[in-house]
Automatic annotation (TrEMBL):
<dbReference type="InterPro" id="IPR014030">
    <property type="entry name" value="Ketoacyl_synth_N"/>
</dbReference>
<dbReference type="Pfam" id="PF13723">
    <property type="entry name" value="Ketoacyl-synt_2"/>
</dbReference>
<dbReference type="InterPro" id="IPR016039">
    <property type="entry name" value="Thiolase-like"/>
</dbReference>
<dbReference type="GO" id="GO:0016746">
    <property type="term" value="F:acyltransferase activity"/>
</dbReference>
<feature type="domain" description="Beta-ketoacyl synthase-like N-terminal">
    <location>
        <begin position="29"/>
        <end position="194"/>
    </location>
</feature>
<protein>
    <recommendedName>
        <fullName>Beta-ketoacyl synthase-like N-terminal domain-containing protein</fullName>
    </recommendedName>
</protein>
């Protein structure tokens, strides 16, 4: 499947949007671990903005930047929102409430606990009825999300927004499902290869293949392994360098191969 990347976004510790993140990935700018600072979710009405948590704000920041960079109105793109952990902070709060005598679960917390809440906030904020899918595929959420988004883009012949994001989980669950850093990335994929864009991706899946590539940037290696969405960093590094190449990503079972051709 061949798709054109028209917009990108990256947010994480020491990574604030695609232009700055691209400089870090090319090692033109030193990476420094800094707390994630997200822009406000301006697309949401005031009431919804107050109800939304950090996971939703991360997803919306990614989606907004990628669409803006691509010059694409949100209502023009199908959405694929991929997340491994869901909103662990909300789940931990709910579990704490129901295991405490007299504890009550907040309706807002319950509302935010569902896996497709960020996708729902996105459609609410932009008043769009274009389909938006929410995926959860454990450590392979980035690659399965990319495979799903590329397939939708080609088969439906329509722009497709891929948003992949995860946060650390507090409490007892976080000790079992370890995610050390917040991170997310987003891609706007176009089926028309002749459009002005960032690069062309040729995506192929082999369920019998094994082996994958690691990010070359030594300081970002832990981030790429200790957040499920960080699996996308090796592909983002190749795109940032604007060089032709092949990136192999783990996709249980098998391997997702992505050939990158700068536009």
């Amino acid at each position: 499947m061949r798709v054109c990347v028209q917009g990108l976004s990256v947010w994480g510790p020491g990574l604030s949007g695609w232009p700055q993140s691209a400089r870090v990935l090319r090692r033109e700018e030193a990476w420094q671990h800094e707390d994630l600072q997200l822009p406000p979710a301006r697309c949401l009405p005031a009431n919804e903005r107050r109800r939304s948590g950090m996971l939703t704000r991360l997803a919306l920041a990614l989606a907004e930047e990628a669409c803006t960079q691509a010059g694409l109105r949100p209502e023009e793109a199908r959405g694929v929102f991929a997340c491994s952990n869901g909103d662990g902070t909300v789940v931990d709060a709910i579990l704490s409430a129901i295991t405490t005598e007299g504890g009550e679960v907040s309706p807002t917390q319950f509302h935010n606990s569902v896996h497709n809440a960020p996708a729902g906030y996105w459609t609410i904020g932009h008043k769009t009825q274009v389909p938006a899918v929410a995926l959860g595929c454990f450590d392979w959420s980035f690659t399965q999300g990319l495979l799903k988004a590329a397939a939708e883009c080609v088969v439906e012949n329509t722009p497709t927004l891929l948003v992949v994001y995860d946060l650390p989980i507090p409490g007892p669950i976080g000790k079992v499902r370890v995610t050390e850093y917040p991170f997310g990335c987003a891609f706007v994929l176009q089926p028309r290869l002749g459009l002005e864009g960032i690069c062309v991706l040729d995506v192929s899946y082999d369920p019998t293949a094994s082996g994958y590539d690691n990010i070359a940037h030594p300081e970002l290696l832990n981030l790429s392994h200790l957040n499920p969405a960080g699996a996308g960093l090796v592909l983002l590094e190749k795109i940032a360098h604007q060089t032709v190449g092949l990136v192999r990503l783990p996709c249980q079972p098998g391997t997702l191969s992505v050939a990158v051709q700068p536009c």
